Please model this.
Amino acid sequence: MSRNLFFKIKLSLIVFTIYSFTSCKEEVKSKPTQAPIGMVWVESKTFTQGAKKGDQYAMPREQPAHQVYVDGFFIDITEVTNKQFKKFVKETNYKTVAEREIDWEVMKENLPVGTPKPHDSLLQPGSLIFNKNVNKIASMGNYLQWWTWKIGANWKHPQGPNSSIEGKDNYPVVHIAYEDAMAYCKWANRRLPTEAEWEAAALGTRSNSIYTWGNNPDILDQKANTWQGVFPVKNDSRDGFESIAPVKSFDSNSIGVYDMLGNVWELTSDLFNVNYYKELDISKVSKNPKGADKSYSPSNPYQLEHIIKGGSFLCNASYCASFRISAKMGTSPDSSSDHSGFRTVATKNMLH
Model:
């Protein structure tokens, strides 16, 4: 072996060793040693976002499926609970949107021109609750039949003034509007997940499945809190819960995250736009997407909306079938209800 060739091989080995050592160091650095209490680390990953092959319930807004990459992040293992939100309110004296007086001048800016002002008796603080007294419906297209505007309903009184969350510290907080979730995030030094991050966490160690547990719909009742029976008139409660359930009532997914399907809808930071996926260049991987630049929904064209994910205890195959990872709906920033909540995420730089 010539001296020159020996030198080249030696140099190559040195460079390889330095590169390998550096790569290992970077890989170690990318993995946090300890997750914050109540959170779990979601590894950086490339996965299929949107409607999966064989999903009979997939909606046009979930298509086409495309490849997405997200950096690693922490996520709450459960939805934010009443106990956690109670601590936030105690320390900040925060008042949620559902507890505030309604300003008609502000409200009408998001309504069609000429919308008449409701009677003052209706413009009182409150929120939407599911009408449990529905006996029959005329059309599944008219969701107003099973929703009621309840004056006095809010996170402390989920079903109205005469209800309470006493003894329900371990339940997800509900009646949370986007502004409320953002205020909590600021206090907790967290943020809302993007839709892509939410799906990455829901998939766990998987990269292309319809549900958090795989592709088998037959075990839905064992895995998530949804509606069984005839929606919206009869819930058979085969999953053990007629309405909202305490967190961790069902098994976690493969990385230890609970209730990402069913129970309560979860807010994300992305704007809801039914055409967003169709406008993507799906020939390449989308890296850390933040969603559409503007919201758009033909059913609610005057209103800014954010994406909510995961479905709720009201989801049934005959209605929304949103107990799937790719499913999504839109909600206006000032909207809240008894089946919507949130969970938060954090990145390593947020924890320093």
